[in-house]
Amino acid sequence: MRLPNVKALMFDLDDTITDFRTASDKAFAVAFGDISRETGVSLQLMRDTYMDLFEDFYTMHLQGDINLEEFRVYRFSRMFEILRLPMDDRLLDLCLDFEEVYDRSLEMFPDAMDVLVELSQAYPMALITNGPTDAQWFKINKFHLEGLFDIVLVSDQIGIAKPDPRIFQVALAGMRVRPSEAVMVGNSLEHDHWGAINSGCRFIWANLTRDPLPKGWPEPDAEIHHFTELRPLLLGFVQSDEPDDGASTVSTVSTVRTERTE
User: Fold this and answer.
1) In this structure, what is the dihedral angle of CA atoms 129, 238, 222, 115, given to the nearest 10 degrees?
2) Strand 151-154 relative to strand 182-186: parallel, antiparallel, unpaired?
3) What is the total count of domains within the chain?
4) Rounded CA gap, 141 and 91, in Å?
5) Most buried pick, 73, 108, 183, 206, via CB within 10 A?
């Protein structure tokens, strides 16, 4: 079922369009594999600890408390402290190894480019991403995304981060649509969904990892498990050659909340 009265789209980048998780897993394995084997601390625990710290240190960077290079190193050094891993002269080299492998390994999700091209021909679109300016623009340029979007907003570049409604309002003003006419597509409930709620927009949860919705969290307007599932929601059709991963499309479309009033 197609979502009604949609006139513009907004997209998140990391783990929505690009596969951040897979690339970071590969980078952790290469950069910190030896440390894991030496200490017995699992790579999964390292990654989970790192991700918990990422938001805290990024907020500090956004507020001007630490610069970009400090942000890149401190998130790892603090992880080492918490897990009581040996910190020696290798740490900086390990951080650089992580960044190099991550940049090289990062890919878009399957079919994301094809669907984005189709959507860009039907709607004005904005890309709204939290992260350091150079890191996010590296991804945007690597996959030639800028030409698909009418507006590109990087939180570090403009000094506002999701879920602050102001960053959504900038996108809405640029696309000249009302909040009720726009849909945000993203993987993060905390940043993308809450930001959409705060700004009065609808939300499609790009739940590509099939995580359960936390108890008590507001229902999204729709949920997808594969990028191609945006076609019936936003274009009103399904291509016959789209991959069939079970009943994902049926279950996804059935989650559309048609009772919303505009």
Assistant:
1) 0
2) unpaired
3) 2
4) 29
5) 206
